[in-house]
Amino acid sequence: MLKQEFVEKVILTALRGGGDFAELFYENSRQGSVMAADGKIRGITSAVTAGVGIRIFKGNLCVYASTNDLSESALLQTAAAAASVSADGKLPGQLKFSRYIPELVCKNAGKAFVVGKEEKIAFLHEITRRTFAESVKIVKVDAHVSEKERQILVANSDGLWAEDKQLYNFFNLHAIAGDGGCRFEGISGRAAQRGAGFYLQQDFSAEIADLVRTSVEMLRAEDCPAGKMPVVIAPGNGAVLFHEAIGHSLEATQVAKNNSLFSGRQGQQIANEQITLVDDATLADAWGSFNMDDEGQSSRRNVLIENGVLKNYLVDRFNGRRMDAAANGCSRRENYTFAPTSRMSNTMVLPGGFSPEEIISSVKKGVYVVDFKGGSVYPSTSSFNFSAKRAYLIENGKISTPVKGVKLIGTSEEILQKAEMIGTDFKLSEKAGMCGSVSGRVPVLLGMPTVKVSEMTVGGQK
Question: Average pLDDT in the 7-17 region?
Answer without folding.
Answer: 93
